[in-house]
Every structure is written in structure tokens, then in C-alpha cells.
Design a protein that fits this description.
With about 280 residues, the protein is α/β, with parallel strands linked by helices. The protein is about 45% helix and about 15% strand. It has helices at about 10-20, 40-45, 60-65, 80-95, 115-130, 145, 150-155, 170-185, 205-215, 225-235, 240-255, 265-270, 275-284; strands at about 5, 30-35, 50, 70-75, 100-105, 135-140, 160, 190-195, 220. Strand 5 (about 100-105), helix 5 and strand 6 (about 135-140) form a beta-alpha-beta unit.
Amino acid sequence: MTYLVTGAAGHLGALAVEALLDRGVAPGDIVATARDTDRLGAVAARGVVTRRLDYDDVPSVDAALDGVDRLLLVSSNEIGRRAAQHRTVIEAAARHGVELVAYTSVLHADSTSLGLAPEHLQTEQALAEVGIPHVLLRNGWYLENYTEQIPTHLAHGVLGAAGSGQISGANRADYAEAAAAALVADDSAGRTYELAGDTSFTMAEYAATLSEQAGQLVAYTDLPQSEYAAALVGAGLPAPVVETLADIDRAVAAGELHDDSRSLSALIGRPTTTLAEAVRAALA
């Protein structure tokens, strides 16, 4: 059985390759792909097969998928172009007889108003239209979305427009482990997993956790969405990023990044990473 991971030079894809190795998949049965294979040197040194795959280059996609049995399609990071890029990979997978595609979608893709969701939903629809067996991994929020900003938060505090909305976050490694579990399982085809952390937190609770762990007061300042967007503009962020971040906090405030199904911990067979654990690790 040969497993291919797209975007293996990125955070989630790289962790998914590690998770497959941790599950006992032989390195030679894993194909790690990226636009630039030079970035895959570390896994290549461990015996993992590396191939070039550029979502916008159909011949590279076809060549990468040759002989592949199962595919983890990690969503592209090119907002606005992702649906077309994903469809290119899906159609190539069908041509090559790939028996299962696992796709990293977004939490509640078919019901959320999150601005990032439509391209994910279009990809889910493409999988159905092409008719290839697939499993949907609807990932919730990454704790790293906050912990990677800790230096800024320690220096300036935390700004947002999330209100008292609950965020059911987990670490990228948790989601990568779930992707590996679904990819190797015999009963994944046709399943949809809403994946999120076991516990939830508000942004005020995030600030309080950071304060406790760092030993200094970190305040959360909640703003109207328009004022938050203006603050992001003032910080020098480009307009598309500002629009996305402000929309995310709107969705958080509306409760759209909360999920208590515990499907993620059930799939990986252990509790998900807690906020306190993630903050502690980031500070260390």
C-alpha cells in the first residue's frame, strides 16, 4: 500500500508524514510531495519517497500520483485558488485509480458562515462529483494560530473581536495524527469527521492561561469587528489578511468554531492537546 501526502513541506503535511511513520508505515511506502522537493530532504534521508507535485502543474500531479493507492490531500494555502487546485488533484487521482482520498476540510464546512469555508465545500463537492472514494477530515482551529503569536501577545496584549465565543482547538499534530489514522483505516471511505479539541476556551481564557504560564499579565481586549479590522490595518497587515482574520473572529463570536463531538480524540485514541499544554510548550 502506497500513501501520498501533498504539501509535505508545510506544517500539517510534514506532521502527517511523521504520523504515518509513527503508525508503522514503511518509509518506502510513503510518498511526500511538495512544489520544491529540496524542502523534503529530512524525510528523504529517512527513506521516504519524495516527488514534485505542484497543484497548478497537471503533469507534475499525474507523475506524482503514479502507483499511489491512498492520498492525503492537504488543502492548499492559496486562498481564492484552492478549489481549482484541489480539483486538479482529485481528477488526477481518479485517472490513476487511487482507492481513497482523505481531504483536510474545515469544521462544519457545509453549515458554517466562515469565509474560508466555501472553497473547502467546493472541494468536498468535487470529490462527490468525480466519484472517488473519500473521507472528509473537517479540521477545527489550530492552537498554533494563537501560540505562534505569543511573543506579540506578551509585548502588546491580545486584540480580537471574538467576544465570548468558544474555540475548540487542538494542535496540528493532533489533526495530522487523525489524518494518518483515517488514511490507513479500512473503513474510512464515506465518512465525515468533525474534528476539534476536547476542551474549548474563549480568547479571554487564552489570555489568562498565557498570563499564568508566562508569569505576567496579558490582557485580552475585545473590539467590534470593524475596530479590530482597523487595528490590523494599522499594524500593517494587507487587506486580504485583515478581512480573513476579522471574519474568523466574527465566526468565533457566533460559536462556529466550537464542537463538542470529541471525534478527534476518538479517532486518535487519546485526549487532544490542551490549551495549557500548548502554551507551556510554546513558552519553553
